[in-house]
Specification:
Layout (H helix, E strand, L loop, with lengths): L6 E5 L4 H12 L3 E6 L6 H7 L3 E4 L3 H7 L3 E4 L8 H9 L3 E3 H9 L4 E6 L4 H14 L5 E3 L11 E2 L6 E5 L21 E4 L13 H12 L7 E5 L3 H8 L5 E6 L3 E5 L6 E6 L2 E7 L5 H15 L5 H8 L10 E6 L2 E5 L5 H15 L5 E6 L8 H10 L5 E5 L4 E2 L2 E2 H7 L4 E4 L2 H10 L6 E3 L1
Helix pairs in contact: 1-2, 1-5, 6-9, 6-10, 7-8, 9-10, 11-12
Pfam families: Mur_ligase, Mur_ligase_C, Mur_ligase_M
GO molecular function, one term: ATP binding
Protein name: UDP-N-acetylmuramate:L-alanyl-gamma-D-glutamyl-meso-diaminopimelate ligase
Amino acid sequence: MDSSLRKLYILGICGRLTGSIAIFAKKKGIEVRGCDWRKNPPVAPMLEEQGIEISLGYNFSDIENFAPDLILIGTTHIRGEAIVEQILASGIRYISAAAFIGEYILRDKWVLGVSGTHGKTTTASMLAHILKEAGKQPSYLIGGVAESLGTSFHFTDASPYFVIEADEYKTSFWDPRPKFVHYRPKTLIINNVEEDHNSVYANLEAIEAAFHSCTLLVPSNGLLVFPANSESVKSIEARGIHCAAKKFGSEGYTGKALKEDFSKFTVLIDGKESAEVEWSMLGQHNMNNGLAAIAAAEHVGVDTFTAAKALSCFRGAADRLTKIGTSNGISIWRDYGYHPTSVTATLKALRQHVGPKARIVAGIPLHWQLNWGPLYRDGLINASTYVDAVVLYANRDKVAGYPAEQFAEFMRPKVQSTRDPAEFEKLLFEQAEPGTHTGT
């Protein structure tokens, strides 16, 4: 740790990423303080347990009184905000969250980065769990909380291994590069690469270029793990890679389903059966996530049998196809995914799990900020083929370039839509009956 860094101030300190940075810095002997609009759980209570003071509101006087050596400015902050303009005018040194992680947290670590437009949190959680169960004592920094890990971050000096969720979103308002370029991974998983973040990336080719930039950071003795059947990843590979590579999915590390919902499968390496996994996870997409984690874990000395045994006791990340309860005979599921491919994979997995005769009602909040046009529309139409009824919620006039009401027209006859969150829940349960599975 830089000995000149004695006092760190963090804007938006109650975020999961910024909060974990605050706790890391505190444990390294740095005096930490920050501000946010609210003391949001679960992060704020953890910060206060560590004696980290949180100021409500963004007041530059609080920064002046604290007199930090360095200010961490999160991704959401932009030019024009009063606090940002005051920081720039003050001349106090500032840094992005991703740059801080790369410079202070990941220095001298064997970084295992998990990237992709979706599937990062689950796959990173699987990989961290495998290394933990194998006695590798990894550090990790992940965007969600897997039940198996109990927390989204863990820092230790007992091991060089560090698993991190490597995000492709821009670093900050002054640094348009993807966050993952700061992490310098030695082991890199690239999972799904599809159109996303259209406010940052003009098209799929721009996203592919961003992911390729991350592969250029992997050293010659490193490892790249990627899906064999992804055309985008093939395009990235064709641009040139400079390390060993392993494939998963349709070749290399493959899986043979022993149950229709993929809750039990055999792991094969180049066609040879190597191990078996029986776990609580559902869907082919999660099997592939597990295969990627197994391949990456092997790079740090974890054999396939040990990795598969660890996955058999893996409990998934919260809000990733999780059954959260039952009410009046209705099973209630929750999943965080918003990308059309992710939504489709989730609903397909749920259908495989409950069988063809069970009734499924899906509640889908439409993401107005994703201006994907036909990609978003057609993806959700495809997802709806796995369910019996759909309730859409949109709180904006337009979604993906279409009037919100048109989504209901696209997906009829099995869909209803509303802009009222209370009515959204009401419509969802009106479509259900005992034995129904509902999900949002």
